[in-house]
Amino acid sequence: MDRSQRLLFRPIKLRDMEVKNRFVHSATYEAMAEDGAVTEALINRYRTLAKGEIGLIIPGYMYVHPLGRTKNSQMGIHNDAMIPGLRRLVETIHQADGKVVFQLVHVGRQTTKDVIGETPMAPSRHRRDPSLFFVKPRAMTEEDIQVVIESFGHAARRAVAAGADGVQIHGAHGYLINEFLSPFFNRRRDAWGGSEENMFRFLKEVFGQIRAALPEGMPLMIKLNTNDHTPDPGITPDLARTYIAWLAEMGIDAVENSCGSGFSFMSAIRGDVPVDELVMMHSSWKKLLSRISLQRMVGKFDVYDGYNLEDSKAIKPALGEIPLMAVGGMRKVSHMEEVLEKGDAHFISICRPFIREPFLVKRIREGKTDEASCEYCNKCFGAIAHELPLRCYYKDDFRELLQKTQP
Ligand SMILES: Cc1cc2nc3c(=O)[nH]c(=O)nc-3n(C[C@H](O)[C@H](O)[C@H](O)COP(=O)(O)O)c2cc1C
Ligand code: SF4
Question: 25 CB less than 6 Å from ligand 1?
């Protein structure tokens, strides 16, 4: 191994959590839970990934409250009955010498009445999203806000009880925390909106509840949008810098910066737009509208090496020495090394390449340094939207597959 390659395998500590290398499995929804609970399929998936030598594994987003879930096959951390399954998940990863951080989410407006049984909630009642959920949410009451803030604290306590090594707040991709932070979604004029301080208040309260539930040595991190890419301005890199400066003062332990929301979700993942696969989710008028809006995204967001790094530069001054996790299009080993070498990030965070190649890190350590073989076709994303279990679907005929699996 040469020097720069050794950097990829240099251990790093966040509070008491020592990670054996710089690779992070970025949170990836698996569509494998049953009513929120961990299943054998999830255990098997994470056993394989941990054996693949990924230093830090962040499993798919876990909902902190039943009204804060997008799908029934999403993992939940919303009640104590979830703890034994989550503990098994943690032990499986620990047995293979990996570390595990839970990503906590409330999905806000990005769900449907079919799933949660009522109109989804958001900071404000504003504008139907055009392609995935078609939801015009109801505005949260003061009581709703307090309930959700407390739910994050309870979820963090359960993460500790399950033995997780840390917690990541999901503040990206248009979910509830992102919605409060964004002037596009948050139109409130009370204590929770109207100024940057007020829009930040919800995250500040959530952060406080979580930090209070974690032992001193346990790191608390965040995945935050540095660009919402909404039709009117939401979080921009400049606004993100302000938020990061406040998070730094509050003692955040690491930041993973991403982008996009239900209004432009392809910016988060880039690559091919799985139009046919996603349109098949809908019936009646939604099919046509969804096709139109999805087709508008074709060619709009290019996938290239480290596509969020440009926006990372804007938040770097506010971050100081706080470690950054670079996510998005990390597939060339030489590029990963360069990112670490130049100090642009401390971690290399990867999602799709690990779906296709769970043993990617192991093979890089063994000196087989070809770029990751993921084609960014996004059929895996199309599949989980239908709650098909996560795997690489690159070679599948999707229409045939769905016909086979649907009753
Ligand atoms: C199938 C799939 C599921 C995802 N699930 C999550 C998730 O649960 N939480 C999250 O923060 N991001 C999620 N993402 C986004 C990824 O974590 C990551 O930010 C994005 O895919 C860019 O990384 P990549 O280029 O290495 O795939 C998901 C992406 C895909 C393709
Ligand atoms: S289906 Fe496979 S090749 Fe396509 S984006 Fe997903 S992991 Fe990559």
Answer: no
Round to whole Å and give the CA distance between 77 and 82.
6
The answer to whether the CB of 374 is under 6 A from ligand 1 is no
Enumerate residue ranges in the chain where pLDDT < 50: none
Token pair for residue 29? 């929804």
State the pLDDT at residue 402: 80
**pLDDT computed for residue 404 by the predictor:** 79
Q: 313: exposed, middle or buried (C-beta count within 10 Å: 0-12, 13-18, 19+)?
A: exposed
- The answer to whether the CB of 161 falls within 8 A of the CB of 142 is no
Domain count, the chain: 1
Kindly give the distance from the C-alpha atom of residue 307 to the centroid of ligand 1, in angstroms, as a whole number: 13
Tokens 């993921």 found at:
374
For the chain, the farthest-separated pair of C-alpha atoms sits apart, in whole angstroms, at 57
Closest CA to 299 of 271, 269, 265: 271
Residue 330: CB partners within 8 Å, gap ≥ 6? 305, 306, 336, 339, 348, 349, 350, 353
Q: How far apart are CA 241 and CA 235, in angstroms?
A: 10
Is residue 158 in contact with ligand 1, taking CB distance under 6 Å?
Answer: no
Could you tell me which residues are beta bridge partners of residue 258?
A: 225
pLDDT of amino acid 103: 98
Query: Positive or negative CA dihedral for 287, 292, 295, 297?
Result: negative
Question: Which range marks the domain in which residue 110 is found?
Answer: 3-405
Closest among 299, 282, 298, 302 to 290, alpha carbons compared = 282
Output the CA 353–ligand 2 centroid distance in Å: 7
Q: CB under 8 Å to 40, separation ≥6 — which residues?
A: none
Q: How far is the CA of 378 from the centre of ligand 1 (A)?
A: 11
Structure confidence at residue 403 (pLDDT): 78
Spatial separation of the C-alpha atoms in residues 337 and 339, rounded to whole Å: 5
User: What's the confidence (pLDDT) of residue 399?
Assistant: 79
Residue 61 belongs to domain with CATH number:
3.20.20.70
Starting from the CA of residue 392, give the closest ligand.
Answer: 2
Structure tokens at 19: 């990670």
Token pair 């296709």 in the structure block, residue: 356
pLDDT for the residue numbered 283? 84
